[in-house]
Amino acid sequence: MLKVTLAAPRGFCTGVERAIRIADRTLKKYGAPIYVRKEIVHNKFVVETLAARGCIFVENLSEIPKPLGKIVIFSAHGVSPQVYAEAIKLGLRIVDAICPLVQKVHVQARKAARAGKAIVLIGHTGHEEVEGVIGEIETAGGKYVLVQNIDEAQNIDLSALQNTNEQAIWLSQTTLNVAETEEVVSEIRKRVKNLENPASDCICFATKDRQNALQQIAPECDFVIVVGSENSSNTNRLYEVAAAHAHDAIRVNNLSELLENDKFKELMASADALSGEQEMHIGLTSGASVPENLVAEIWDYLQSKTRSI
Ligand code: SF4
Fold first, then answer.
1. Average pLDDT in the 238-259 region?
2. Structure pTM?
3. CB–CB of 231/306 below 8 Å?
4. 129 is annotated as an active-site residue
5. Rg of the chain (C-alpha set)
6. Cβ pair 155, 204 in contact under 8 A
7. Does the structure show a pLDDT above 60 at 309?
8. Mean pLDDT throughout 89-105?
9. Nearest ligand 1 atom, CA 204
10. How far, in Å, from the CA of 53 to the mean position of ligand 1?
């Protein structure tokens, strides 16, 4: 027998819904084309849908053709003050779709930098959200060191933090693995004196809730399917939770990718061979930028197999 369990909550968070709503309203109000700096949220399907409606996604503001006065939407991941300044200088009209929970980290970074505190930022190099927060620190004249994982926490280079006022604070990207971040912070604490916790949690409730929900079901699953794009940080963290707690796990964008996946093909072959009371348990979840219809098509497919096995 094939058993499928859906994790709840999963899929769209409020920050993603808000960003998509902003893009939708901007398109309706001003008409296409509307320029969007970077992917508005890290999901291929969302980006392709908005592109089909007239959003033009650019990596840099310099790609937006003149004349001036064009609208640019900033993504849910936020931008640095430098990018804001550049947009103003280029004469662009800004619509900012930053998630309020990312903005909260920007505010904490700015305050800490202005207070002369050393900032230990936990996050991934090159991620848009991290670049935005680093920009806040630099603009406020602060000093920071970026730590990506336990290994880097154990070998943290504190030379960049010289001439701060002996107080330090850690901040993080909003979409990290909760358990791993706790370990990273305790490693940093061994090496950085007077390390303060952020005034309020940096990892957002949507990330935590989705990881907790998956952690509840994964230990009983033979296989977990995580739906989401490969550049989505919170999706990748869900995959890590699944891989750590379930027997096996994969990440896919949608049903057609799932059906092409070798591990899944093998799984379905062994499901076909199940006999009598034997049970195979599949868990299903999705990242915070994934529309529910992508999960629903996988759910429907699995349900059809449940009936046929
Ligand atoms: S995952 Fe969290 S920080 Fe990112 S958009 Fe959603 S609510 Fe905001």
1. 97
2. 0.94
3. no
4. yes
5. 22
6. no
7. no
8. 97
9. 2
10. 24
The active-site residue out of 39, 128, 129, 187 is 129
Cα dist from 84 to 39, 60, 92, 217, whole Å: 17, 12, 10, 42
Q: What pLDDT does 308 receive?
A: 55
Ligand 1 probe mutation, 77, 102, 128, most atoms within 8 A of CB: 102
In this structure, which residue's CA is closest to atom 6 in ligand 1?
15
Which candidate, 134, 162, 129, places its Cα nearest to that of 146? 134
**Which residue has 């902003």 as its token pair?**
22
Residue 193 has a pLDDT of 85
Mean pLDDT score, 116-135 = 97
Instruction: Write down all domains in the chain, each with its CATH number in brackets.
Output: 2-11+205-308 (3.40.1010.20), 14-98 (3.40.50.11270), 101-196 (3.40.1010.20)
Cα–Cα distances in Å, from 281 out to 216, 219, 271?
Answer: 14, 10, 10
pLDDT at 291: 98
Rounded average pLDDT over 259-264 = 97
Q: Ligand 1 pocket test: which of 204, 205, 211, 237 has the largest number of ligand atoms within 8 Å of its C-beta?
A: 204
Nearest CA to ligand 1 atom 5: 15
Q: Which tokens sit at 142?
A: 């602060």
